[in-house]
Design goal:
The structure is a single chain. The protein has helices at about 40-70, 85-95, 100-130, 135-145, 150-165, 170-180, 180-190, 195-205, 210-215, 220-235, 240-245, 255-260, 270-300. It is mainly alpha-helical. The radius of gyration is 33 Å and the shape is globular. It has 13 helices and no strands. Helix content is about 65%, strand content about 0%. Helix 3 crosses helix 7 (about 180-190).
């Protein structure tokens, strides 16, 4: 057996090398654990709500993706399909002129977006930076047109397009969609905060109004122009009422009209409709993901709350 150590006698001096702290018992922390702050709780609540809204928003897209790969008899059944199939996508891409619909929508959307950005930026710059009589009244009248929706002016617009010979043509699909006062309003709000020193410096260098606009204003307006490009492209890609009204030639059908043609008067092949909708959604999601940063920056800098 090992010999047991005897405790040192009372009043004995501890050996050299041992600190005074080792001869004392360790202090016990009696403080209560720190509670989470009010700010951290608020941040966690906001994050939870944001994730819940994100999942709620993504749910229709997830349902669309899953339903596209289901057999025709399981389109509206809950859960995953019994077996995954590509027959719906194959039918839409081969038996229906869907590539033609995609091409028409892409052409109309790109042309309308490009022309609208150029004309709207010019009008917004003139209404915000140039001094002329009646500028405020003109802008107020233009903004008031936002109160009038497309169904209200659909018949007069159709009659004007018919009188100008724009029925069943790309011209009829493009020109009436170029004019959108929202783009002028957004760009004007941005140009109102534009520094005047840059304009003065350009004018001292001999720049005309067009030179000032194209060499100074446009390069510094990339954020609002990019955000408007996203909005205009998405709006024209998803347009349905005006293309349905202005065209009767199947070769001019855009993607939304093509999807509607998959539904008959008394029946509808919803498995093909869902497959076509999935194909139509992909470009819009890609465009929005590319331009979302400029979209947020432009809204933040334009004064919109």
């Amino acid at each position: 057996m090992l010999p047991t150590e005897k405790p040192p006698p009372a009043g004995a001096i501890p050996p050299a090398g041992l600190s005074q702290a080792t001869s004392r018992p360790a202090a016990v922390d009696t403080r209560s654990p720190r509670r989470p702050s009010r700010r951290s709780l608020l941040t966690a609540t906001r994050a939870t709500v944001a994730w819940a809204l994100a999942l709620l928003t993504f749910f229709p897209i997830a349902w669309l993706i899953i339903s596209t790969f289901k057999p025709a008899g399981e389109t509206f059944t809950s859960g995953l399909p019994s077996h995954w199939t590509l027959s719906n996508l194959t039918y839409v891409l081969t038996q229906v002129p869907f590539p033609r619909y995609l091409l028409n929508s892409a052409f109309v959307s790109v042309v309308v977006t490009g022309v609208a950005l150029m004309l709207h930026s010019m009008a917004a710059y003139a209404l915000s930076r140039l001094q002329f009589r009646g500028r405020t009244l003109i802008f107020a009248l233009m903004v008031s047109t936002l109160l009038v929706s497309l169904p209200v002016i659909l018949v007069p617009l159709f009659l004007i397009a018919k009188r100008l010979g724009m029925l069943d043509s790309y011209t009829g699909l493009i020109i009436p969609m170029i004019f959108n006062v929202f783009g002028i309003f957004l760009l004007r709000q941005y140009y109102l905060n534009f520094p005047t020193e840059l304009e003065d410096a350009a004018q001292l260098d001999g720049c005309s109004y067009f030179g000032l606009f194209f060499r100074v204003v446009i390069p510094l307006s990339r954020a609002p122009l990019a955000s408007l490009a996203v909005l205009f492209f998405l709006a024209n890609w998803n347009s349905f009422l005006w293309p349905l009204t202005i065209t009767s030639n199947p070769n001019l059908d855009v993607i939304q009209v093509g999807i509607a043609s998959l539904q008959g008067q008394y029946s509808a092949a919803y498995n093909y409709v869902l497959a076509a909708s999935l194909i139509a959604v992909i470009p819009t999601v890609v465009i929005f993901l590319i331009g979302q940063r400029w979209l947020v920056d432009s809204i933040k800098n334009s004064g919109l709350k």
